[in-house]
Amino acid sequence: MQLLLMKRGGQVIYSGPLGRNSHKVVEYFEHPGALVNDCFVVWLTVFRRNKALVKELSKPPPGSSDLYFPTQYSQSSFDQFKFCLWKQWLTYWRSPDYNLVRIFFTLFTALLLGVIFWRVGRKMESSKDLLIIIGSMYFAVAFVGFENCITVQPVVAVERTVFYRERAAGMYSAIPYALSQVVMEIPYVFVESVIYTLIVYSMMSFQWTPEKFFWFFYVSFFTFLYFTYYGMMSISISPNVQVASIFTASFYPLFNLFSGFFIPRTKIPKWWVWYYWLCPVTWTVYGLIVSQYGDVEDFIKVPGQPDQQVRLFIKDHFGFDSDFMGVVAAVLAAFTVFFAFTYAYCIKSFNFQQR
C-alpha cells in the first residue's frame, strides 16, 4: 500500500510504501533532516522507482496472450434475466405506494360502477337498455386500463435511471432487464383483474356461465395488461414522465373515438376504418360485447323497427360476428406482446440519460 502525505500548500512530505505496520514511514521520518533537506530527493527517488515498476509490470511476460472474454457480460442472458427478475420482485414488493394504489383504485372503481349499474344485466327490454349495458362494460374496463397506464409511468421512469447506471457498470444488458419488468407486472395485473371481474360481474348481474365469465376475465386481464405495457412503452420513447404523459393522453381520445362503441364500425367512413382495426380498445369492446351477448336470442324492442334478437341487433348495429372470439382473443394477446417488446426494444435502443 502506498501513502502520499502532503502538508499545507501542497508540498509533498512523503510518497512511498507504508510497509508492514507502517515501518517504512517510520524509518523515513526517523532519518535526520527528512522534513527539511532531503524531502524532495527522497520523493523523487520513490517516484522514479514507482515509474520503473509500472513500466516493468505493463509489459506482458514472453509467451503470454492478451486477456480475452467470450461474452460482454459475465452471466448468460437467462441468468441475467433471473437476477433482474429477483431484483424487480424485491422492488415491486417494496413499492406499496404503487401496487396498493392501483389495486385500491380497481376496487373502488369496480364498486362504484357496480353500484351505478346495479344489476343492469337483467334490465334488457330494448336496444337502449342493451347499449347502456354495453357502455357499462366498456367504461368499467377503460377506467382501470387508463389508470394502469398512468400509474406505471413514474415507476418505470425511476427504474430506468437505475438501469442506466447498472448497465454502464456492466451488470446486465437491456433485454433481460426489460423482460423481467414485463414479467413482473403479470401477477399484479392478474390479481387486479380477479378483484375487478368478481365484483363487476356479480354486481352488474351478467349471465353466470363458466364460458362467459372466463371470456369477461380474459378480455379484462389482457386489456389491463396492454394498457400497462402501453404506459411502459411511452416512457421508453420519452425523455421524462411529463412527455410520456402527454404522448399517452393524446391517444386516449382516438382510442375512445374508434373503439366501435361511440361510433359503430358500420358508421365509420371507409377512409378511416383502417384505424378502427389498429385500435386496441376496439378489440376490447368487440370481445366484451360478443362474449356476453353474441349468442343471446332474446327479442328486444328497436325504435322504428320490428322486435329483433339481441345477437342480430349486435351484428347489424356494431358489425360484430359471434364466431370471431378466437381472433379477438389472439389480437388482444398480440397487442399485449407488441407493447411489451416495443418497450424492451426502445429501452435497449434509446438513451435519455443526461450528464
TrEMBL record:
InterPro entries registered for this protein in UniProt: ABC2_TM
Membrane-traversing stretches: 100-118, 130-157, 213-232, 244-263, 275-294, 324-346
Subcellular location: Membrane
Major location (coarse): membrane
GO cellular component, one term: plasma membrane
One Pfam family linked to the record: ABC2_membrane
UniProt GO molecular function: ABC-type transporter activity
Residues in ABC-2 type transporter transmembrane domain copies: 80-293
Signal peptide residues on this chain, from the entry's feature table: none
Keywords: Membrane, Transmembrane, Transmembrane helix, Transport
Coiled coil: none
Membrane topology designation: Multi-pass membrane protein
Taxonomic source organism: Eragrostis curvula
Protein name: ABC-2 type transporter transmembrane domain-containing protein
